[in-house]
Amino acid sequence: MSPQGGISENISGWLAETDEHRLDLLWTTARQVREQFTGRQVHLRGLIEISNLCERNCTYCGLRAGNKNLPRYRMTDLEILECAKKASDLGYGTVVLQSGEHPSIETRWLCGIVRAIKRSFPLAVTLSVGERPLCDYANLRECGADRYLLKFETSNARLFSQMQSPLSDGLDRLARLRFLRRIGYEIGSGTMVGLPGQGIRDYLRDLFLFCETDPDMIAVGPYIAHPGTPLGKKAIKSQAPQPDSALMTRKVMALARLLCPTANIPATTALATSERGGYQMGLDSGANVIMPNITPLVYRAQYEIYPDSAALEHEDMHREVLRVIEAAGMEVGKNRGDRRRQRTEFAAPTWKSL
Ligand code: 5AD
Ligand code: SF4
Prior knowledge:
Elements: H1 7-16, H2 20-38, E1 41-51, H3 77-89, E2 94-99, H4 107-120, E3 124-128, H5 134-142, E4 147-149, H6 157-163, H7 173-182, E5 186-193, H8 200-213, E6 217-222, H9 230-238, H10 245-259, E7 266-267, H11 269-274, H12 278-284, E8 289-290, H13 297-300, H14 314-327, E9 331-332
Parallel strand pairs: 1-2, 1-8, 1-9, 2-3, 3-4, 4-5, 5-6, 7-8
Helix pairs in contact: 1-8, 2-10, 3-4, 8-10
The chain binds 5'-deoxyadenosine and iron/sulfur cluster.
């Protein structure tokens, strides 16, 4: 890496960096920037996997319709409200309702749930329920939904089109994100790292796309091969040496922190699933959000986006998360954890000295 180089060379240099001591400088700077722009608080968002029904066929995801080995469920209203109560009792500021895309996950039903949660608890509601007609996003927003999470997964258009077929409305995810922001949602986006065929140029472009879309939340997680998916089967069969996706994930997270200093960045469940101590790694790399899974265990086992390690009951998960936050010298967020924008945002002072 050349200190004289432009920003692209600088970022690419960090993405290619393997020297642990030099990488320490990246992690430390990401933590400093986090502290300066988002403070010492880690915001907790309770994740509720409300349904694993999905009619789409993304080649990387275990919930794809083609995976016939998966028993499908949709939680009842009461079960979802009980989870929201748990989140509220534990002092979380947000619940995230997540599902696949399927006609049975009707927008009308979701609207009722959002209204009921907002009536009963002082929680922000994040929706992560996929690509829907624009008027459905607007209806959900009117019912009180605060945030919407829609990852663009990779900025490599060729790779993306091989993994997912577009919906017939002709809108891509970036257009949807723009609309969601226009109608008042905080928007979240993100990527997977370590997909077969991805390289440094792709991660660099992902980072620039984060700058361009300026999401309020940026989720970066390692791709985990699922044997029940076409991409997973191929990756496992090829026996190609697996890229160190956890390390690359950490680099992309830390660089996202430097480029988008006020964004909320979670230590993702995918990182915590693929690596022991994944939450800690995430916080060490500049994250300021954790999303403890509070879905009842019977359903969680069936929400198999990727093969999961032993799932913890929510009380045990909560204790573990508190331990990790304390070990990182941080504290649990006391409010909803909305994004705090600052006028100085684009002058992240540390960037040039790196
Ligand atoms: N590995 C990692 N993340 C995955 N997702 C789906 N499948 C995988 C996988 N095999 C993530 C994607 C998607 C969300 C539902 O889960 O980012 O947006
Ligand atoms: Fe369905 Fe989302 Fe999985 Fe694609 S990534 S198969 S839309 S749950």
